[in-house]
Amino acid sequence: MESLPHCETLLLKKQGPTLFITINRPDVRNAMSLQMVAELATIFSQIESDLHIRAVVIRGADGHFCAGGDIKDMAGARSQKAAEGEADPFYRLNRAFGQMIQQVNESSKVVIAVTEGAVMGGGFGLACVSDMAIAGPTAKFGMPETSLGVIPAQIAPFVVERIGLTQARRLALLGLRIGAEEARTLGIVHQAAGSDQELDEMLDHALERVRQCAPVATAETKALLHRVGHEAMSGLLDSAAEKFAEAIRGSEGAEGTMAFMQKRPPAWAGDSE
């Protein structure tokens, strides 16, 4: 990505092989608007083929990750009437978010969510599609939709994939709010920091580990993991063996093998572009 696009709801910063995305609507605890959904979708589309970006860090401004859907957008959709032959405005609003969160889920990049403060509704869903999630001491997670008379339509399937059906049922059907430690126990996040300093250290360590792993091999591995459970195992393993052969004969496989033999870091470990 040669230049970062201008966004009204996001702050973007590229540092080495990492793109930092800060959700920047602090006046509404970073609630997710239609514009934010569109901007996130645009960013992830743009970076998909950019091999210089290997990790994406998503966090929220001013101590909150994301408090869920924007009430103003909901009110706007309520005031609209679907034209003949067009989908319901609420359907379009909800489905646009689902398409974006699926895009983040399937991104070839390593997506890291740094969660603090409110991690609710759509924000909770976004955390659940990250490859790694870290919680700060103030983080509160929840699926409050049923307590508001609506349903977690687009996030529920991803929550089930993240933590399993039985725990997703408990959170969704009781509209619970839980803290960072319980979120870690359930597997919503992988690590829970006891302080802001520890949170930053955990993030730095994760990004250093990403740097040690070959970018194409990482992307292929993520794609393979997403196929598990959706295809017959024998066919999946046949395909995986083909991918393995391509990888080991490819430039990354050759470099990784040579670096191991020569007891030196592989070329991608020093990638700062």
TrEMBL record:
InterPro entries: ClpP/crotonase-like_dom_sf, Enoyl-CoA_hydra/iso, Enoyl-CoA_hydra_C, Enoyl-CoA_Hydratase/Isomerase
Position of the signal peptide: none
Transmembrane segments: none
Protein name per the record: Enoyl-CoA hydratase-related protein
Superkingdom of this protein's organism: Bacteria
Record-linked CDD domains: crotonase-like (cd06558)
Pfam families with a match to the protein in the record: ECH_1
Family assignment from sequence similarity: Belongs to the enoyl-CoA hydratase/isomerase family.
